[in-house]
Amino acid sequence: MSLLKLVGVLMDYPQDALWQHREELLEAANDPALSPARRRALADFVRGLLDTDPLTAQDRWLRLFDRGRSMSLLLFEHIHGESRDRGQAMVDLIEAYRKNGFELAAKELPDYLPLLLEYLGHRPEAEARDWLQHVSNIVGLLAARAAERESPYALLFELLVEYADGKLDLGVFRKRASEEPRDDTPEVMDRLWEEEAVRFGAEAPGEDCPPTSRPAGRPKAAAQVQP
């Protein structure tokens, strides 16, 4: 299992089946491309995740990645938000997958980071690094936000930054993350749902009026891509 695929598997919503692959994941974490310290940290992450009850691990994942937008694993949400440019970017990314012989095996948004990592795990290393360099600012900010929330998932994002080039100054992102308001608090989430409450009659939006934001909800697991 490549490092990128491993990170994608660990970053994805922890399905129950993950607990059946403990030894395989620990073996993959012992990647010789990583420093001894990083190998130990990654193995500790795997053990910590799999030593946790699945329901508890799933709840922690949802609390981190599915509340608010700041920790979204949908890359284009950080770039385009809800603009129409996001749709075209999705089309272009799907075409890039298909051009290289990969088809999504499930209906999943192509910019879902674990899915992108699954794809890049099959591509030449130089190409994979180039892709990650293009999104390194997003990944770096996710790393900083996860660290600010004292989440062990910060390690996975840091590994991606290092894989891309290792030159990104995470200190800058950590400072930003420490100063920005949280968007996952109960107060903020309640306000979001109030703003997106269904309206009837004259106040109802037209069918051509897109939502201003994406309500939180349990995501599907990353689709598998087949070479």
TrEMBL record:
One of its GO terms (biological process) is nitrate assimilation. One of its GO terms (molecular function) is metallochaperone activity. NCBIfam families: narJ. This is Nitrate reductase. The keyword Membrane does not apply. It comes from Lysobacter concretionis Ko07 = DSM 16239. InterPro entries: DMSO/NO3_reduct_chaperone, NO3_reductase_chaperone_NarJ, TorD-like_sf. Residues 200-227 are annotated as: Disordered. Keywords: Nitrate assimilation. It holds the Pfam family Nitrate_red_del. Signal peptide: none annotated.
